[in-house]
Design brief:
The structure is a single chain. By secondary structure, the chain is of the alpha+beta class. It contains 15 helices and 26 strands. The strands form 8 sheets. Strands 1, 14, 20, 21, 22 and 23 form a 6-stranded mixed sheet that branches. A 4-stranded mixed sheet has the order 2-11-10-9, with no helix packed on it. A 4-stranded antiparallel sheet has the order 5-6-8-7, covered by helices on one side. The radius of gyration is 24 Å and the shape is globular. The two termini are 36 Å apart.
Length: 588
């Protein structure tokens, strides 16, 4: 959602192409730092110390669904998007050409590219990455939904033209076609055997390769840094890639991510003068702002952060092994439109901005980031109105007792469980307020911050949940959220299909409005005229706002404090402070 995309913060990859389901904290993903450790023989000027709240979940880019992850430091694609200008820029490719009919993209690779192990990086690596990994139906890749074209949802054809050129072909015009080239290129000489070999369960061995138990020296990359060492629950150390395509870069020799599970601890370390950066959360802002000059750091404010925060009800009406995924009584409430609208009216988002975000945020009404040119500023939204919420509930047969507790028409007390990831102070405060707000209209909420891995399992595998509070990262391009809105999308979380290898679901129902949103996303992607595209996405935003599969909350400001010894910072909400990390320098 934060929601600050980790990749946006530290990499020229700019956007997360498939809208990661972010389970970390809002602001610490903006690279808070733990600067008390200067490791090895490097001088203080050659090491940048940053912090993350938790251990990485995988070193396999394709399997990653969350932040933090290492890939912004370790990988590049054919192209990227400059978060300052919004323009596409070359990375592993030196140039590209779009055919007149907009159906072919031809990329020319740079000469003499190499992997971090010194092996040549060639067109064959590009072909392997797309045909054997990203477009392989046996490998679950979130980004694949963003590559689907048209009503038939066809995928690009990728072929080698010669030793320096690769061609992407699609069946009809596709506005975000160029974005397909932003995914990281992966090393064929290391991973091919795992993609082609299947285990006893019939699944590619690729699905178990490059886990966090993999020795760092086995992780081959093409970005500015390579993973040098990982110590569980302590730190990750990245070292300058000697074969990086930009000769002599990056300037900073080493990056350390210290795993610090307490943001309060990071704050203490930053104020002590030994930290390089910290995400500025609302409760820290006033204190840090007063110390900005004395502490020799700068607080960068990029305006509303890209992404969204929301609560979402489980609308899945299906059953698994004869048991409903959601209690049928609760499912009846959740699938009643007026119930969701009542909840939306009952949440006091202005109070949330003032109390939780200390005024450092804005109301978010749309699934599209506020800074995107496709954001609809005219959505009516849901202004705080508990009286209207009560009226909506009464109109659908809900009733109040003498204690003003809410019951449905059958006499069932209205209550549900709200989960979020534990340890996120901002989100925990948001959840606590939502609990209070809904109690004012008679709804009992059991709010339970839950361990990260448990949340992931419930949302992705068991599908056993009532309501969750999380968010999605975002960017300028709406189609990056295609896997949220396609009815079979891998992040269509409010009515999720079974994940690969999971038990099937019987009786799942897809609503007409879900189908219409998916249709509009297909139509919006195939339209090349910008103004017409914007009109299409305005319509999709209106439907999403009306039917509320996600009840959007608050968009915080993207703020990060960075010590002034870091030179070359070009801060933006989309890129954060470290998107150009290969260009940054550390002064004396």
């Amino acid at each position: 959602m934060e929601f600050i995309n980790w990749a946006n913060v530290i990499t020229t990859e700019k956007k997360n192409r498939f809208w990661l389901l972010v389970l970390g904290v809002f602001f610490c993903f903006a690279l808070g730092a733990c600067g008390l450790l200067r490791l090895g023989n490097s001088s203080p000027d050659s090491t940048l110390i940053l912090s993350v709240l938790s251990d990485p979940k995988t070193f396999n880019y394709v399997l990653s669904k969350e932040a933090p992850n290492i890939f912004g430091l370790t990988y590049e694609g054919l192209i990227t998007e400059n978060p300052i200008t919004g323009k596409k820029e070359p990375q592993q490719a030196q140039s590209w050409n779009v055919s007149k009919d907009h159906l072919k993209l031809t990329f020319t690779l740079r000469a003499d590219l190499k992997w971090s192990d010194g092996q040549p990086l060639t067109v064959d690596d590009v072909i392997f990455t797309y045909n054997d990994i990203y477009l392989n139906p046996d490998i679950p890749f979130n980004g694949r939904d963003g590559l689907r074209v048209g009503q038939k949802q066809t995928l690009p054809k990728v072929r080698k033209l010669n030793d320096s050129q690769v061609e992407f072909t699609i069946t009809e015009p596709f506005a975000p076609f160029l974005d397909a080239a932003s995914y990281p290129i992966l090393p064929k000489h290391v991973l091919e055997k795992f993609s082609k070999t299947k285990g006893q369960d019939g699944r590619p061995l690729f699905l178990s390769v490059w886990g966090v138990d993999t020795p760092a020296e086995e992780i081959v990359s093409n970005g500015p840094y390579v993973l040098k060492k990982y110590q569980t629950s302590e730190r990750l150390i990245f070292q300058k890639n000697p074969y990086y395509r930009k000769k002599g870069l990056p300037y900073i020799q080493q990056v350390v991510w210290s795993i610090v599970e307490s943001t309060d601890t990071s704050l203490i370390q930053f104020r002590s003068g030994g930290l390089d950066s910290i995400g500025v959360s609302p409760d820290y802002f006033s204190l840090l702002k007063s110390e900005e000059k004395k502490g020799d750091f700068t607080i960068y404010n990029g305006g509303p952060a890209y992404g969204t925060s929301f609560i979402s009800f489980n609308l899945n009406k299906g059953s698994r092994n004869g048991k409903p995924l959601v209690d049928p009584i609760k499912s009846g409430w959740f699938n009643t439109l007026e119930f969701r609208q009542a909840v939306a009216y009952a949440i006091d988002r202005e109070r949330m901005i003032n109390n939780v975000f200390r005024g450092l945020g804005e109301v978010q009404d749309s699934d599209i980031s506020k800074q995107s040119p496709f954001y609809d500023k005219n959505l009516p939204g849901y202004q705080y109105n508990p009286s209207k919420a009560r009226s909506l509930l009464l109109s659908k047969g809900f009733k109040y007792n003498e204690k003003q507790e809410l019951f449905d028409a059958q006499g069932n007390r209205v209550n549900f469980s709200l989960i979020t990831n534990a340890g996120n102070k901002i989100r925990e405060a948001m959840g606590a307020q939502i609990k209070q707000d809904l109690e004012k209209i008679g709804i009992k909420v059991d709010f339970s911050p839950t361990a990260f891995n448990v949340v992931v399992d419930r949302l992705s595998n068991s599908l056993d949940w009532d309501c969750f509070l999380l968010g999605f990262t975002g960017g300028n391009e709406p189609n990056d959220g295609a896997n949220v809105w396609f009815t079979d999308g891998s992040l269509h979380s409010f009515n999720q299909k079974p994940q690969a290898g999971s038990a099937p679901i019987q009786g799942q129902v897809v609503s007409d409005w879900e189908k219409e949103i998916a249709r509009l996303y297909i139509e919006g992607a195939r339209e090349l005229d910008f103004d017409k595209r914007r009109a299409i996405y305005q319509k999709s935003q209106e439907i999403i706002s009306q039917y509320l599969p996600y009840i959007y909350l608050v968009n915080p400001y993207s703020m990060t404090a960075i010590v002034n010894r870091v030179k070359g910072v070009e801060y933006s909400a989309l890129g954060g402070g470290f998107w150009n990390i290969d260009q940054l320098k550390l002064s004396d």
